[in-house]
Design brief:
The chain is of the alpha/beta class. 42% of the residues lie in helices and 14% in strands. It is built from 19 helices and 15 strands. Helix 13 runs parallel beside helix 15 and helix 15 packs antiparallel against helix 16. The longest helix is centred in the last third of the chain and has 20 residues. The N and C termini lie far apart (59 Å).
Length: 427
C-alpha cells in the first residue's frame, strides 16, 4: 500500500528532504503530526500557497494530523527568505485582522473537527517570550557563521540584512521546538526557500531534546515559460472569492500551457495518477478538454462544487466548448454533457436603455467594460481586430454600439481576443 510519502514523490511535491529513508518508513508505519506555517501578510492566500495546502490535505487523507500554523508572531518581523529587500512591517492590528481571515480560509481545505487537525497562531507563544531567557535558552544553540551561510541570509547580505530579520530563523526554529514539545510534531514542510530555517529547527530539537525530526521542502512552482504561479496581467490570483471570482479562478487554470497540464493535475487535484499520465497522449481539442478538467477540479477544491459548476457553465457558454469525453480523467466530477447556457459567473457591466438607444462609441465601451486599461489602448486593440461584439470583430474604433446589438437574451457579448469576456446588460 502506498504511503503519503509515495504520493508526494510521484506527484512532484518533493524538492529536499532530511533522512528520506527514515521518513518514508515513519509515514508508512505510524500516524504523525506535521506542520506548515503561513504568513498573514494579506487577508487571503494566493495560488502560490496551494502546494503546501494540498500537501496538508494529502497528509490528512492518509490519516496523519496536520497543524496549520498562522504566523501571527513571526509576521510581526517578516521572513527575509526569498526576498531581495525587507518586507513591509505590519502592525499588530493588521496582522490580527489577516489572521482571522486566513483561519476561516484554511478551514475550507482542512477538516479541524474532532482533533483531526489543529489550527494555531504562533503569536500565542512568541509574543510572550522573555528576551533574555530566549537568548540564554535558545540563542546559544545557533552559530552566526552557520546562519550567514544559509541562502535566505546570504542573498540579502549585499542589499542589507536588518537585525530584526536576522532573528527570524531563531523564531521559526523555536516554533518547531514548541510544536514538538506540546503537540508531538515531528515533520515540518514548506517552500524550498525555507530550507535553512527548517534545518535550524530540526537541529534545535536534536540539541535540546535529543530527538530526530524531519523536514521536507516543495519545489518553487513556475509555469513552463518560467512565470511565477498565480501572477497574471490582472495581478495576483487570490484564493478568496471576493478578491478573485470563481470564474476568474477557473479561467486561470483553463489557460494553462499544454506542457504544464500533466504536472498541474498531479499537484493541484486528487485525480489518480494513472488517469493523469494518460494526458500526455492527448492533443488539440482533447488536450483542451483536459484543461477543463484541471480548471474544474482546482476550482472545486477552492470554491466548492456549485461554484465550479457555475464557472464551467459560464466558460462553456462563452467559449462554445464541447463537453469533456468520458475517458478523459473519468474520476473527475466535471459534467460530461453540454452546459446549459449560464453567463451569470462571467464578468458583467451595465448600461441604461437610454445610453444604448443613443449608442456608445466602441472604444469607450471597451474601456468602460474593462477590456482595455485606457481609451488609447482600446483604440489600438480595435485597430488590431482584438475587440469583438457578439463574436463579430469591431472594424472602427468609433463604431456606435447601440440597442440593436442586444442578442435574443437581452445582452451584448463583448470580448477581447479569445480569452476575456464581458456581458453587457441593460439596467
Amino acid at each position: 500500500m502506498k504511503s503519503v510519502y509515495d504520493i508526494f514523490a510521484e506527484r512532484g511535491f518533493i524538492e529536499q528532504v532530511t533522512d528520506e529513508g527514515e521518513l518514508r518508513d515513519l509515514l508508512q508505519k505510524e500516524k504523525v503530526t506535521c506542520y506548515i506555517g503561513f504568513d498573514p501578510t494579506a487577508k487571503s492566500l494566493h495560488i502560490g500557497s496551494l502546494v503546501p495546502i494540498m500537501a496538508l490535505m494529502h497528509m490528512q487523507r492518509y490519516g496523519h494530523r496536520p497543524i496549520v500554523l498562522i504566523g501571527g508572531g513571526t509576521g510581526l518581523i517578516g521572513d527575509p527568505s526569498g526576498k531581495s529587500e525587507m518586507r513591509q512591517i505590519l502592525t499588530r492590528d493588521e496582522i490580527d485582522f489577516n489572521v482571522s481571515y486566513l483561519q476561516k480560509q484554511l478551514a475550507k481545505y482542512i477538516d479541524f473537527a474532532k482533533g483531526q487537525a489543529i489550527l494555531l497562531n504562533n503569536a500565542e507563544w512568541l509574543t510572550e517570550l522573555n528576551y533574555i531567557e530566549f537568548l540564554r535558552d535558545i540563542g546559544r544553540h545557533f552559530s552566526v557563521n552557520k546562519m550567514l551561510a544559509a541562502e535566505s541570509y546570504r542573498m540579502r547580505m549585499e542589499t542589507g540584512l536588518n537585525f530584526i530579520e536576522f532573528n527570524y530563523m531563531l523564531l521559526q526554529a523555536y516554533d518547531y521546538l514548541y510544536l514538538f514539545k506540546n503537540y508531538g510534531c515531528v515533520f515540518q514542510m514548506g517552500g524550498n526557500d525555507q530550507w535553512g530555517n527548517m534545518l535550524a529547527g530540526s537541529d534545535l530539537i536534536r540539541r535540546t531534546e535529543g530527538k530526530n525530526v524531519f523536514s521536507m521542502t516543495f519545489p518553487l512552482i513556475t509555469t513552463s515559460h518560467g512565470h511565477k504561479m498565480g501572477k497574471t496581467e490582472k495581478g495576483t490570483m487570490w484564493l478568496e472569492a471576493e478578491l478573485t471570482s470563481p470564474y476568474e479562478y477557473y479561467q486561470y487554470w483553463i489557460n494553462t500551457e499544454d506542457s504544464d497540464i500533466e504536472r498541474f493535475l498531479a499537484l493541484f487535484t486528487f485525480l489518480p495518477m494513472e488517469e493523469i499520465i494518460e494526458i500526455r497522449e492527448l492533443t488539440d481539442a482533447r488536450l483542451n478538454m483536459a484543461k477543463a478538467v484541471l480548471a474544474f477540479e482546482a476550482t472545486q477544491i477552492t470554491h466548492g462544487h456549485e461554484a465550479a459548476i457555475a464557472a464551467w457553465r459560464a466558460s462553456a457558454t462563452a467559449f462554445n466548448t464541447k463537453p469533456v469525453e468520458r475517458e478523459i480523467c473519468p474520476s473527475s466530477s466535471i459534467p460530461r454533457e453540454d452546459a446549459k447556457r449560464d453567463m451569470s459567473a462571467v464578468p458583467s457591466t451595465k448600461k441604461t436603455r437610454s445610453e444604448l438607444e443613443k449608442g456608445i462609441p466602441a472604444f469607450e465601451l471597451a474601456y468602460a467594460a474593462g477590456l482595455a486599461g485606457s481609451k488609447g489602448e482600446a483604440r489600438r486593440l480595435i485597430a488590431q481586430g482584438g475587440i469583438y461584439v457578439n463574436d463579430r470583430p469591431i472594424e472602427r474604433f468609433d463604431e456606435n454600439i447601440d440597442i440593436r446589438c442586444l442578442n435574443e437574451h437581452g445582452e451584448i457579448h463583448l470580448r477581447k481576443g479569445k480569452k476575456k469576456h464581458v456581458v453587457l446588460t441593460v439596467e
